[in-house]
Write a structure and sequence with these properties.
It is a single chain. By secondary structure, the chain is mainly alpha-helical. It is built from 22 helices and 8 strands. The strands form 3 sheets. It has a 3-stranded mixed sheet. Helix 14 links the parallel strand 3 and strand 4. Helix 6 packs antiparallel against helix 7. It is globular.
Length: 498
Amino acid sequence: DELRWHPEISAYFMPDAIKGGGFSEMVTEEEKKEILTNICKYWDERSVADRIKSVLPVELCRDVLEGLATPIEAKLWEMGIVNPTYNYPSLFKEGIDARIKKAKKKLKVLNENAQNIPPEKYIEKRNNWKSMIIAGKSIKRFAERYAELAEKKANKEVNSDRKKELKFISATLRQVPSKPARSLYEAIQFYWIIEVAAKFIAVYGHGGGHRIDRILWPYYKKDMKEGKITRKRALELIECLFLKIQEVGIALEWPVTFTGKAGGEIFYTLNICGSNEDGSDASNDLSALVLEAMCNLHINQPPIAIRYHKNISSDIVDRAIDLLKIGMGHPSWFNEDLLVEWAISRGYSSDEAFHTYVGGCVTNHIRNKYQIMTGTPGVGGMIVPKVLEETLYEGGKFAEEDRPDKPKTKDPRDMESIDELLDAFLTHVKFYAEEMAFAWNIAQEILTKTYPDPTNSLLLDEPLERGIDVKKLHKENDTYPAIFTLGMITTADSFTAI
């Protein structure tokens, strides 16, 4: 019935894909006409991918632009993915109204002091805070529309139990996310409205990374103590959340990545367990409920990541093993100490490193920071067996005479040791890595200047405080880029054989 697609990121591939390609069976004839004559036509030369390609010098980025015909695939901006992790405990306590109010206050102070601020800084901050205010109001309106729909349905409902349920839904959506969450139900609803509005509507986002059992625990604990909820009802709410995550599905995107990711959905990884700030075990009854929910549902989203540490509850480990036995691939296991080491090695403080989360498949994040925010999750992939093959043949009879820009290394038949071959291989690796990095840096500049994200700028603390778009802050805080090496084992085996 519906396929998520973000043509503002990339649309050029869609005509071929729906005429006879991989997406041809996904849309009706009427929808094909709409896509071809309206959507694709509008975004031609306007999309993120088109804007970047128009700037990249072909002479220096030939292999990047040709893609799979070469040993590298470095157009990951065509995925467009962003992956923020919010400070949900803070958001739950504030509500969106408070953040809008803060942006308005910042804007007022800025206008009062405009004469003392360089014009370009004034304009940048003014535009950013005004955009954040608009985005915040849009999130509120998004929730209000659901509240109005629930109320409208309630007025027509004849079943008294369902009428009561619909009125409760409406009241909840008028409370959150505008105002602070007061219960487990409201916290879960708050969470999901933000995730949908900020990651699936405003931009193309995926991945979770949040410690779901930790951020929801105060509300669960309070509701249980006050007798406002039962454990059975809490389990049902978690199951409902998981089903909502499952139904989102992967967005249609550049076929190279869609093909590889379609079965993985949106990699909406949720972290559970781990430790508290004092090193004690943070596992709680919500951790157990998360595992129970996945045991009951047998679905592949959201992936569950166990944050393993030396003090973890043996009961939780037993429950996790029970889930493993089902064979759905849940949970994955991550050493929490290594997550912290990863962050500290990249210059983050110990307090920031404590909030290192697993998002996506194996992508680490620092809560409230800005890795993977510009739509390029990495420089790209290098297929290293193809680089080795090129090293072996370019010195011989299969040398590419039409590529004077590429390194020409010694014919392997004239080499006297494996070290000579390794050096030649690394020369080719370096050539492609430099080409990929060059293209990536240009793409980052285009994305930073032409593809702002006021919604996530409002939801993250530093952009709101400083009046700077999160895309720009991404460049200040980015500890990537990464080149993904593919086929390393094949390459190592090949060197061993030689």
